[in-house]
Each structure stands twice: as C-alpha cells, then as structure tokens.
Amino acid sequence: MNAPDSLAREKFAQLLALTREPFPASTKVYESGVLHPDVRVPMRRIDLSNGEQVTVYDTSGPYTEPSAQIDVRMGLPSVRGDWIARRGDTEAYDGRARVALDDGQKGDAEDARLQALRAEAAALQRRPIRAKAGRNVSQMHYARQGIITPEMEYVAIRENGRREWMAQYLADAAREKRLAGNPLGAAIPRLITPEFVRDEVARGRAIIPANINHPEVEPMAIGRNFLVKINANIGNSAVTSSIEEEVEKLVWAIRWGADNVMDLSTGRNIHTTRDWIVRNSPVPIGTVPIYQALEKVGGVAEDLTWEIFRDTLIEQAEQGVDYFTIHAGLRLAHIHLTANRRTGIVSRGGSIMAKWCIAHHRESFLYEHFEDICGIMKAYDVSFSLGDGLRPGSASDANDEAQFAELHTLGELTQLAWKHDVQTMIEGPGHVPLHMIQANMTEQLKHCHEAPFYTLGPLTIDIAPGYDHIASAIGAAMIGWMGTAMLCYVTPKEHLGLPDREDVKQGIIAYKIAAHAADVAKGHPGSRARDDALSQARFDFRWMDQFNLSLDPDTARNFHDETLPKDSAKVAHFCSMCGPKFCSMKITQEVREFAAQGMAEKSAEFKQGGGDLYVPIKPVA
Amino acid sequence: MNAPDSLAREKFAQLLALTREPFPASTKVYESGVLHPDVRVPMRRIDLSNGEQVTVYDTSGPYTEPSAQIDVRMGLPSVRGDWIARRGDTEAYDGRARVALDDGQKGDAEDARLQALRAEAAALQRRPIRAKAGRNVSQMHYARQGIITPEMEYVAIRENGRREWMAQYLADAAREKRLAGNPLGAAIPRLITPEFVRDEVARGRAIIPANINHPEVEPMAIGRNFLVKINANIGNSAVTSSIEEEVEKLVWAIRWGADNVMDLSTGRNIHTTRDWIVRNSPVPIGTVPIYQALEKVGGVAEDLTWEIFRDTLIEQAEQGVDYFTIHAGLRLAHIHLTANRRTGIVSRGGSIMAKWCIAHHRESFLYEHFEDICGIMKAYDVSFSLGDGLRPGSASDANDEAQFAELHTLGELTQLAWKHDVQTMIEGPGHVPLHMIQANMTEQLKHCHEAPFYTLGPLTIDIAPGYDHIASAIGAAMIGWMGTAMLCYVTPKEHLGLPDREDVKQGIIAYKIAAHAADVAKGHPGSRARDDALSQARFDFRWMDQFNLSLDPDTARNFHDETLPKDSAKVAHFCSMCGPKFCSMKITQEVREFAAQGMAEKSAEFKQGGGDLYVPIKPVA
Asked: Where does the chain bind Zn(2+) (chains A, B) (predicted)?
C-alpha cells in the first residue's frame, strides 16, 4: 500500500465515520415479525420536543445504529441467511472460477495492484449458493405456492411503520378523506399485511429484489401499491483507492434515502469492488451485466457472445447482485425505427445491443436466449429489470414508435419471465414532456400487465443542464403518482459530467421529494404523517423539530442559522421572514381565541343579517 | 457617505457590471412593430456554431445591451413615454406630498441618512401623471374600446419571438402533432396577433401590468394563452447600503429570467429605495401596499385605517408600481373557518387584515372600499393582484373551506374590478398536494371567470425545508400546465431564512424550468424549439452550443469542465458519461448508416418471414 493509498483510505475512513452518525434526535428502532419472530425490521424514530414521536422508513441499514460493530473488510451481518437455509432448497457449491478478466485485467495473471485490492478484504469472498436442481428460489415462486416468506413479512412491517399517526387518522373521518389521495388505479390497503405482500408478488405487481447470495439485504418491495422507491447510481472511481471509498459512496447514498443502488462501474477491478459493495450493502444492488461483458471483449460490441454474457450473469449472480438490467426487448426489427430520431439511441446498453444486431444482422442474443436467462435468474432469485434500450434521449423523441415497440416486447418478455416465476420490473424513460407522461404509464400498465415500472426521471424539458435533477423530479413526481413503483434519480451533473458526493446527495433529495409527493398524492396511508408533524412544529415554532423532521436536517438547520444563528432563535416565536415585530403565526393564535369566543355565532348572525346589506359595496365612484 | 458605504457601493457596482455581461454567444436583437413603428421589442439571439440561430424571450432589459449607457442614478430610458403622451388622456400634477413616514421615519424631519440616500439619486424623482378627470387609462379599458395599444403590439411580438423554427414546424406535420401539446382548455394560436392580445385583455383573460408612471417597463402579458411567466420577490436590506445594491438585486433576478419582480421591502427608507427600483426596472414591479401602511401605524394592525391605506396606494401608484397585492377577499365571515386549521393564516397580508377585522369586529375596509380602490387603479393603470390571505400554509389545510370561500369572494371582486375596466389577476396557494392541484385551477377558472391565476408554487409536500424550490417547482409545473399564468418563485431558504443572491438564482432557475415544462406541455408554439436545438447540439457533440442554449450556461459549462476541463473536450465526440472508448451517440450514427443501407427493407423481409420462426424463443429449460 503506497502513501497516496493510505492517505485516501484515511480520508474515506473519516468520511465513513461521519456518514455513520445517526440523524439528529433519531433512534433506530425495530419491529418484530409475528409469523416469523426472527424478522426484525429497522425504522428511524424521531423524538420531538413535545414528546411526540414520528417513525420513518429507514434505508440506512446498520450504519446508523451506533451499537453496530461494522468492519467493511468483514461485511455486514447476515439478515436472511437463516431464512434461506430453512427453506432447504439451496446448495452451496464451488462457483465459477474467477479469472483476471473479471477485473478487467488482460491475460491470465492478476497484477500486483489487483492482488493487493483483493487481499484487502479477503474475508468478503463467499462460497456461493444456488437452487438445488429443479428448484426455484424466487420470492415470486414461493408467493405463487402460497408461502409467506420472512422477506414478505419484513416488507409488510416496513411499509406500515409504527403508525403513531393511526389513532388520529381513524378518529378524524374528514381528515382521512383528505388523506385519501387519488390513487389513480392503485389499490393500497390501509394496513399492509404479509398476505397482501405475498399476493402482490404472486401477481407480479411487486418484486422483492433479494438474491440468495445477498443475505445482508434488508428486504424491500417495489410495486405500485407500496411506497414509491428511488434508485441511486454509483460507479467505481477511475482508480479505486480503497474499500473505504467504495463503501462510503454506498453508505452516503442510502443515508439520504436511496432504496436501491445500481453499481454502474466499468473498467478495472470491478469484480473485486462489487464484492466490497454487495457484502456491505443493506439495500438491493442492481447492475447492467452487459457493461462488464463488453469489457471482457475489449469494448468491441460485435465480439459479444451469449457465452460471455451468460458467464457474466453467473459471475454476478454468485456475488449476490439482486437485479440485472437486461435489454432483451431491443429487437433487430426495432432498430430502423430510431433512424429518424433527433437523438438516436442514448441508452448505453441499448446501443451496445443495436451495434451487435447490426454487425451480425441477426436477432439480439438476449432476446433469443431469454428463457436461458430466466433459468439463471430463478436459481439465485435475481430479478429482471428489463431495460429500455430505445428510451428517448430528448423530448423530440418521446413516445415514438421505437420506444413503444420495445415496451410491447418487454410486455411479452414479462410473461415469459413470469412463466418461470422470475420477478420482473420494467424500465422506462427518460425524456418525456409533462403532457406525454400519462401515455407512458398507460401503455406500460396495459402491455406489461402491471409489472412494476421503474423510470429514469423523466426529464420534462431539455434546456436545464446543470439542473436536470429538478427538470426530472417534476416528471418523476407525476409518473410516480400515476403508478411508477421506483424512480431512478438524476443528478445535477446529468449530461455534463460525473457526479461527486454533493451531486449524489442533491439527486437523492430531489427524488425523495418526488417519491414523497407521489405517495401523498396516491394516499399511501401514513405518508402525510411526517408532513403534518413538520407543519405542526413550524406553526408551534418548534424549530428543532422542524429541522429534525426534514429530509435533510443539516441543511434546514444551516439555512436557518445563516439568518438567525443564535440558539435562542431556535425557540423564538418568530422567524426571519416577518421578524419579531409582526408575525402571521402569532396572529393566528389570536384568531383561534377569537373563534373560541364565539366567532362562529357572530358570523352566523352576520350571514342571517344579509351579508351584503351589513357591509355594503359602495356604489361605483 | 462613510467608508463602509463606499466599500459596499464599490462592491455592488462591480457586481452590477458583471451582471450586465451579455450571455455567451448571445446578441440583443430587436423586432419592430407594424401598427406602431416605434415599438421595438428586444430578444436574445443565440448564435450556434453550425450557423443556426435560436432567439429566446429576454427579460433582462437594457442591462445586457452592451451599447446601452446605464446610470442607475438617472434610471432607464423611457419605453412607453411617447405612447402614453400620444393617448392624450393623462395629466401631470404635483402629486402627493412626500412625508418622512413614507420612509419609515418617525416625526416630521428626515434624518441625515435618509437625506443622503435621497440625494444619491435625486434625478429619480419624477412628477407623476394620472388619468384626466373622467378618463380611464387601463389597458383593459383601451382593449374594450377596440384600441390596439403599442403595449399590446409589443406583447404580441414578444410572445412570438423570431420563430426561426417556424419553417421546420410547418414542414413537418407529424412533428407538429407531437409539438401540439395538451393545452387543457387553453386556446393558444399559432401566431399571436396584436388583435389577439387586445381581445384577451378585453376579456380579462390576460393583463399587461404597466402603470403610466412606469414608462421604463418593457410590456409583457400574464395570461393563460401566453407563455407562463414567473415572479421573483426581492426585499430591501436591513440597512440599505447603496442604490447599486438595490438595483443589482433586481438586475440579477431579471438576468436569470424573472418576468416580474415584487418588492416586499419593509422598514426604513422603503419609499426612496422603491424609487430606485422602479426607475431602473424594465419589468413590472408589484408590491403589497398593506406592508407599508402597517409600517405607518407602527406595526399595530388594528390602527390601520382606510385613509392611511388609500394614501399609501396613491403614494405607490405615483411612483409607478405596476400591480398591487390587495387582500380584499378576506372577509370577516371567513376568519372563523381557519380556527381548526393546522397552520392557521400564514399570509402576512391575510393575517394583518384578519387581526384588523377581529379587533374591530367589522368587515374588512379593503372589501368595503373595493370600488374606491378601483378608482385609484384605473387612474394610473395599476393592476390588481387579488391576494389569497387565507391560502393554506400546509398540505393539511389545502383546499379547505376558508381557502375556497376567499377564492369565491375574489371572483366577485374580479367582476367589480372589470366593471371599472381594471386589470386583475388572482393569487393562489401555497401548499397543495399533487392530487389536489387540479381542483384549485378548476375552482379558480370557474369562479374567477378566467382572470389570470398567479400561484405561489404550490409546494407538494411539507418535509423539504432547504429544498422547497424543488418541492414547489413540481406543483408549479403542474398548475402552470393546467392554466396558471404566472408562478411566484420559492427559494431554497423558504420557511428558514432570507434568500441570498445564490438562493434567488436557484429559485428563479427552478421556476424557469417549471414554467417551460408547462409551456411545452400546453403546446405553446415554439416553446420546444430551444429544447430541440439543445438536444440536437448534444447529439452532435456541439458542447458550446449545448451550454449556450441552457437556462444557465455558466453552470452547465462549469459542471462539464469539472470532469473534462480541456478545451479539446468541448469539441470531443464523446463525453464523461461513457468516455471515448464506447459512446452510444457514436453508435447511433452507425445505426443511421445501417438504416440508409436498407434496414427497413430487411426488417420487412424479416417480418414477412414470420418473426417468431426466424428467431425462435428457445423452449423452457
């Protein structure tokens, strides 16, 4: 390990320590299963200064549990290991032999650098498991057998939360009506039961991405009748400096609320860094295996073969990747439909496959071997994320024939996947103006049989580079409301460069906003409880509670302190907007006293008196 | 002038000079009137590296015209002076005598500081004009007489732009269909004619805020059938340091695209700084006169009187304020409806009036004197912005009885204002979850007779303090699409503190995104031309064109340069996302060549061959 390496390691170890700090006034709490008593679902409880508590969904994993002993060289403790073992349908085996090419190394020998990286966290190498011959270990398969797995109960508890708001919710029928939202066809029960989760997974309307080789994952569901989820993309550094750096990126993303993380690394050492990421990730990890396959053939798309791709799938499935983006819906016959587009094919995976199809003038091997792929997926419970290789790259190309032709093929493939009980979600665009978003959701629901939709944005306009997290959060909120189950984030650097740590946070917060706006609009039970608690704190001048209930307590507090830095201002009954002399919130208190003194009666009297006569509009001057 | 003053002046003079720099590759161009040859409408032409030009709407005024001689102590040149004079229906008069209290000074004597501030820009004092006795100088009045004013022709030209895109638009019927948008009831003609503007103003469906004492204004329209506009709020500094500082704030806001600016200053020296702002503003200036009236009575709401308020209206009308927010729809009988709200009354103006009504237990003097107010408005052509004093301050209070009761009263008042031919727009919320936004627009259209709607956001969730520009841009885009004519921005500091220069910019850009997303969705002709040009530049790797067409070219370029700083990267046929080895855009070029070689025929052949037989799905493994 040379000097820069050790400096970088130190820097990221410090960052990681910071990233592990619990949120202010927050405590990790756990709810236990009933069907499966060893299910223990973490949540974040926020304690308010008035004694109330608000418990929120928590994606941050053991990292924000102060008592957790975390060593990134050992990986996270297993959550699901016993559950998987109890099912008795898996077997450990030696696994595929790792080769230097997996890490982007030419020739057979690993260089010293790679050897050093591998030695750094040798304990992260695990012996893989797979389904026993003839068995299918997918959550969908269990669901269809009528089995409620621990994973399903976990998801049910997690979606419900502690529901401190429930008593008030039930007590106030009028309020409940306003909370009801407009689900636009979603069917969200007031209480998510384990049986409801099972049924949704069995129907294919939700997935629980959870590779049996990723026992560290805290199960979560992606589906229209659950909370809207978000995905953050991370990639390896040009020169990987340390395991701390790779893991810190992941921990940073889940701290701010990423429900899933896609590892889009390319280039050198990706196999080894993937081990680091998966072993240390409490959230499902997705990949685009064609990227690594392309690396293995030196970046020459036409040299790809089914055999190389298949080998890569098995490599990554053994490592524990939870879902694969596979662009199997891009068929040879679709390609010419893109010829007149303004921005052609902008999906990397899509363009790789288009190039392959053109070069060989034959049908995509992903399409031809789709059921072979299903065979691999169900042996590990890897979920499909069927890629939209022909998604529009500009407003001009939105909803065109190419895009929808591929979507229809994805619908066919969904049914094939379901024939194998393989969990499946569908990727969507991209760039879509506001008025064309509904058509995407309608087409997807119709042709893909309610398989969860997973969209990138969509961006509603093209003229906002530098702010595409905002341009796309608008579209994401809308399509989330309409039924999209997971939103892939866009950072401010989209179209311009590689996101840094701050960009990742900005992208995630923008997407937490979009997802929450959608949840509130759909009327997901309890989704408004946090808003109500925050607004109540605002009205009551409980400043610290207001900060602590925010999506980003640090920024909320820092912004407040820029104007009113003193601690006394945290309890002041005014704020920087109106200042102490005049405060609209204070006046409302007077309105309430006034109302208590019989305003309603006086108003009725006034109305009886004839209103207009009592306060006549003056004649025209 | 003491030392800190002169330092501050120097600092803001430098900032102002920077803010005056033209945007990259941009030239201010002018289109002339036909009906009124002295109409000369500025636009910003962006010259692309491929020889194409894209002309965009320009709110920045003479500040970005390098040849303009600007002296903030003299004010901007008059745009409308001759037009107003030619109409022959106005008269100059001495105006109301200014008193020290106008600037928040107690007693009769002005202190030395105020005298110094006034002396700084003595040339900005103008002799006011007003309508001759019995005349009405509102644009609505002229419109209803069938008169197309220069202001109306100006607006028509401005809304159309140069329409370089028109030939392609007309040539490509299929593309035009996709451009058509979904106007949701708006009726936007392909070409905005002066007669169309006149008709919209006559119907009350659009306003042109343009006080006859603000001849510097570049006329613009606010209406559902025009481009969606945005408003930025500015306020005076706690201690006003210099005229440069006040004017720089304004110039900064219009540089980034504010169509209107509201001056929400309170406290000392506001009369004098308002002179500075109005005389140097090419965009309409709005105010909330009740704020200043409240200052005049020492901040004690119950001491407000109609006489003090009326005097303040005349004071500000003589200075040239273009629209007044007046909370005349908040009636005594509405107040008790807020008693059970989560966050009561959050509008400052609303809470002032509620307090007054409660203290006196009588109807609001604004409501009682509404037609007196109309008499003032039409003598100067000040437009109403009828305030929503009962707007919800949280999702929990959205669309409640209090809010809609006030809205219905605003509808009654609109008809009264129209009886006097006074231009009127209606303010709207606030905090509204996504699924409740449509009801706001529907109620407003129905009860306010299509008078332009002007909303603050709305914020779609409450848990995003620090990011409320994003939480509200989502709601703003949606309500803009549905028919709101102007969107009042929200900065990241909303609910937390006072926005600084960067916050103002962030708020404006978020709202330019929302407004543009709405324009594209509504199918405003030409609104998509800039998106298409930018996406084309992106696809062609014309990096500089991509930056220059952006809403914020500086940020786009800086973000790009963080990853690929070299000048050569600005012409590189790859970007930092995929890198040079593999590029999806390059592959699309190959797709096009492939398509040209007869892909379509081959595809047809393939389809004829029976598709599934030709590339059979393998049997289940």
From this structure: 431, 495
Contacts of residue B581 in chain A, CB cutoff 8 Å? 299
Q: How many beta-carbon pairs under 8 angstroms link A with B? A: 460
Q: Cβ–Cβ of B336/A614 closer than 8 Å? A: no
The CA-CA-CA angle for residues A85, A88, A93, to 5°, reads: 75
Residue A300 identity (one-letter amino acid): V
What pLDDT digit, counting tens, does each position of A582-602 carry? 566 677 777 777 666 654 454
Cβ neighbours of residue B204 closer than 8 Å, sequence gap 6 or more: B140, B414, B418, B423, B424, B449, B450, B451
| DSSP 8-state secondary structure symbol assigned to residue B459 | B
What is the token pair recorded at A362? 């034959």
- Judge: A615–B368 Cβ closer than 8 Å, yes or no: yes
**Is B12:B56 a contact under the CB 8 Å cutoff?**
no
CA-nearest of A347, A334, A354 to A401 is: A334
Which helix H or strand E contains A232, and what residues bound it? strand A229-234
Chain A partners of B555 at a C-beta cutoff of 8 Å?
Answer: 465-467
Contact B344 A539 (CB under 8 A): yes
User: In this predicted model, which residue has the larger pLDDT, B168 or B129?
Assistant: B129
DSSP B184-228: TT----SS--HHHHHHHHHHTSEE----TT-TT-----EETTSPP
Nearest C-alpha neighbor of B285 from the set B276, B294, B297, B298: B276
Joined together, the tokens standing for residue A445 give 């629901």
Q: Give per-residue pLDDT as tens, A195-231.
A: 999 999 999 999 999 999 999 999 999 999 999 999 9
- In angstroms, the CA A606 to CA A615 distance is 9
Local confidence band at A484 (pLDDT 50, 70, 90 cut-offs): very high
Over A425-451, what HEC string results? EEEECCECCHHHHHHHHHHHHHHCCCC
Query: Has residue B116 got a pLDDT over 90?
Result: no
Contact B531 A396 (CB under 8 A): yes
CB nearest A467 (choices: B372, B465, B552): B552
Chain A residues with CB-CB distance to B301 below 8 A? 582, 587
Kindly report the nearest CA distance between residue A173 and chain B, in angstroms: 14
In A, which residues are within 8 Å of B531 by CB distance?
394-396, 461-463
Task: Choose the closest CB to B531 out of A395, A551, A563.
Answer: A395
**Is the model's pLDDT at B123 over the cut of 80?**
yes
At A43, phi and psi to the nearest 5? Answer: -140, 165
Provide the percentage of residues in chain A whose pLDDT is more than 70: 90
Q: Is A476 helix (H, G, I), strand (E, B) or coil?
A: helix
Q: Which two tokens stand for residue A354?
A: 């288009």
Match 């119950």 to its residue by tokens.
B302
- Min Cα separation B37/chain A (Å): 34
- Angle between helix A306-319 and A289-296 (nearest 10): 120
Q: A551-580 b/e with 16+ CB inside 10 Å = b? A: bbbebbbebbbbbbeeeebbeeebbbbbee
Chain A closest-CA separation from residue B76 CA (Å):
31
What average pLDDT does range A230-243 have in this prediction?
78
Annotated binding site of A for substrate: 233, 262, 291, 327, 347-349, 388-391, 427, 454
Task: Read off the pTM.
Answer: 0.94
> To 10 degrees, the CA torsion angle through A82, A84, A85, A90?
-160
Residue B272 DSSP SS3: helix
Q: DSSP state, A605?
A: H
**Contact call for B333 and A603, based on CB within 8 A:** yes
- Give how far A38 is from chain B: nearest CA, Å: 33
